């Protein structure tokens, strides 16, 4: 009985994080992006500096008509947002926040689980692109597929490097094995992982699949109302997951001063900092062209990731 | 090429971060009114006391948004034995701001400084017919016309002022002359009559210097 309540509480916690954190990131993006461009951003919704803007957006989306194009593949079309969103909820379960079992579920092959499930999220975009019966959607979907092919590999290689260093696939185990010198040691891998993650989320500057000036909104062109909102939510949930994972794998998770008491706060602070960097990159850089995007993955990120694995191996052999 | 590869990327990040720390430039309009310079093209005000119904504005208007009606009145002779004069009396002056394209040609072309720009811009209506401002409403805008900005320190004196000053000087000289010698004084006083006429005309309308109205 106690165990059941424990599990329920953990799942409830994960669900709350899943529903709240993406909104926080979204609101931060509104405000940070605005101020980086010399604007104020939302100022009215909620009364104080537009804090309720995303709530208002949600209400608006809920009121809109849910349109399915006549020629669309109905089932696949309607299922796609869920396929895009749910993997991130599942991944959140496995991300450790603090020491002593402060995690939704401690999995032995946590890293494997997390990377495998995150890959599923991209399927949502593919399904949406294929099922919409719209040439822009199809183009967006195919670009998503190409991007997934190119960036999943460096991401996995960088993650494998950390797993080699820690000697375990369990996420709490990796954080437990962390030492401060891991961050400089795995720096290249961390950058590759973060960059590849950005590309998989189709965040600018890697947002070619949704390039609005060319293909409207890529795979999401035909979506309206709540289903569209779910796709947007998936993007922001993806940011939370990516930043959390990067924190856990490369920045030492809960490690920091007074880690025993406020370790979870360290994880959250590092995640928030990375989320800020995600927004910062979006504001600063223009979109990469499709060929540049592919070239960057295959000629820069993958060699870097391989070099990182070699470095990890050498250091591991020398120190053991 | 930049000396260090990737330095451009860092520069881009620095620019956005620096902008974030500065005050934003957004003007929070409905909460804070904008500071508009004089002669901002907000709305056109009519100083109907100056209008002579010459119709120049209505004829020059590119989209014909000015409506003028008038009738003639006969004025009895000013001096006994003189001729009766006719005078135009303004019946209707209206500007349809739904048509107006704010080119300012009417203000430019008015030879009597009866039209002025006012910076007021909050006169949106729910009915398009209400955008036709009749004579009384156009006259009300006149109170919102700001004083023109001061001239540059070394600028030439406005023509009207120069004329008025010259007339005043002549009048003063004539007064001094008539004080000393009576014969020549009366002759000069007659000569200054036509010269002095621009003086009263040049007096600025309420809230606006006429020399600025057309420029």
TrEMBL record, chain A:
Function of this protein?
NDH-1 shuttles electrons from NADH, via FMN and iron-sulfur (Fe-S) centers, to quinones in the respiratory chain. The immediate electron acceptor for the enzyme in this species is believed to be ubiquinone. Couples the redox reaction to proton translocation (for every two electrons transferred, four hydrogen ions are translocated across the cytoplasmic membrane), and thus conserves the redox energy in a proton gradient. This subunit may bind ubiquinone.
Q: What is its main location?
A: membrane
Q: What InterPro entries does UniProt report for this protein, alphabetically? A: NADH_UbQ_OxRdtase_su1/FPO
Which organism was this protein described from?
Answer: Actinacidiphila acididurans
Q: What is its EC number?
A: 7.1.1.-
Family (UniProt): Belongs to the complex I subunit 1 family.
- Keywords of this protein's UniProt record, alphabetized? Cell membrane, Membrane, NAD, Quinone, Translocase, Transmembrane, Transmembrane helix, Ubiquinone
Q: What is this protein called?
A: NADH-quinone oxidoreductase subunit H
TrEMBL record, chain B:
Give the EC number.
7.1.1.-
Q: Per its UniProt record, what InterPro entries does this chain match?
A: 4Fe4S_Fe-S-bd, 4Fe4S_Fe_S_CS, NADH_quinone_OxRdtase_chainI
Q: How is the cofactor bound?
A: Binds 2 [4Fe-4S] clusters per subunit.
Q: Which SUPFAM superfamilies does this chain map to? A: 4Fe-4S ferredoxins
Q: Using the record for this protein, list the coiled-coil segments as residue ranges, or answer none.
A: none
The places in or outside the cell where this protein is found are: Cell membrane
Q: What is this protein called?
A: NADH-quinone oxidoreductase subunit I
Record the organism: Actinacidiphila acididurans
């Amino acid at each position: 009985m106690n165990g059941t309540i424990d599990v329920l509480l953990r799942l409830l916690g994960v669900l709350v994080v899943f529903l709240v954190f993406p909104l926080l990131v979204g609101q931060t993006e509104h405000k940070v992006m605005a101020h980086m461009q010399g604007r104020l951003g939302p100022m009215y919704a909620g009364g104080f500096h537009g804090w309720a803007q995303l709530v208002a957006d949600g209400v608006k989306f809920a009121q809109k008509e849910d349109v399915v194009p006549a020629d669309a593949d109905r089932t696949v079309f309607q299922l796609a947002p869920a396929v895009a969103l749910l993997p991130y909820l599942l991944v959140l379960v496995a991300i450790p926040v603090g020491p002593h079992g402060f995690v939704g579920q401690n999995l032995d092959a946590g890293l494997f689980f997390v990377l495998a499930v995150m890959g599923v999220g991209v399927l949502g975009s593919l399904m949406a692109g294929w099922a919409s019966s719209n040439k822009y959607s199809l183009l967006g979907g195919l670009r998503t597929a190409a991007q997934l092919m190119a960036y999943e590999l460096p991401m996995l290689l960088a993650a494998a490097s950390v797993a080699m260093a820690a000697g375990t696939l369990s996420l709490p185990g990796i954080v437990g094995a962390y030492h401060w010198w891991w961050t400089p040691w795995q720096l290249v891998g961390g950058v590759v992982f973060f960059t590849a993650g950005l590309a998989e989320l189709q965040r600018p500057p890697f947002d070619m699949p949704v390039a609005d000036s060319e293909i409207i909104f890529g795979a999401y062109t035909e979506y309206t109302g709540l289903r569209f909102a779910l796709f947007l939510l998936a993007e922001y949930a993806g940011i939370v997951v990516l930043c959390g994972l990067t924190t856990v794998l490369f920045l030492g998770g809960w490690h920091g001063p007074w880690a025993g008491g406020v370790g979870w706060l360290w994880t959250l602070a590092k995640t928030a900092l990375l989320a800020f960097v995600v927004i910062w990159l979006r504001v600063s850089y223009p979109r990469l062209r499709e060929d540049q995007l592919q070239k960057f993955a295959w000629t820069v990120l993958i060699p870097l990731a391989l070099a990182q694995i070699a470095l990890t191996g050498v250091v591991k052999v020398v120190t053991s | 090429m930049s000396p260090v590869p990737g330095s451009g990327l860092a520069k881009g990040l620095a620019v956005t971060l620096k902008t974030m720390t500065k005050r934003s430039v957004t003007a929070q309009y409905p909460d804070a009114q904008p500071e508009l310079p004089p002669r901002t093209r907000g709305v056109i005000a009519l100083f109907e006391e100056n209008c002579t119904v010459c119709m120049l504005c209505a004829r020059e208007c590119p989209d014909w948004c000015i409506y003028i009606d008038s009738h003639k009145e006969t004025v009895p002779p000013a001096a006994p034995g003189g001729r009766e004069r006719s005078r135009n009396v303004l019946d209707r002056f209206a500007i349809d701001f739904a048509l107006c394209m704010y080119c300012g040609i009417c203000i430019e072309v008015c030879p009597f400084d009866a039209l002025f720009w006012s910076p007021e811009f909050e006169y949106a209506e729910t009915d398009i017919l209400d955008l036709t401002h009749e004579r009384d409403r156009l006259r009300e805008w006149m109170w919102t016309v700001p004083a023109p900005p001061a001239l540059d320190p070394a600028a030439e004196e406005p023509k009207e002022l120069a004329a008025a000053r010259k007339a005043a000087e002549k009048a003063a000289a004539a007064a001094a002359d008539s004080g000393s010698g009576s014969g020549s004084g009366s002759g000069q006083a007659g000569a200054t009559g036509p010269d002095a006429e621009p003086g009263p005309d040049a007096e600025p309308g309420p809230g606006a210097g006429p020399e600025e109205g057309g420029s």
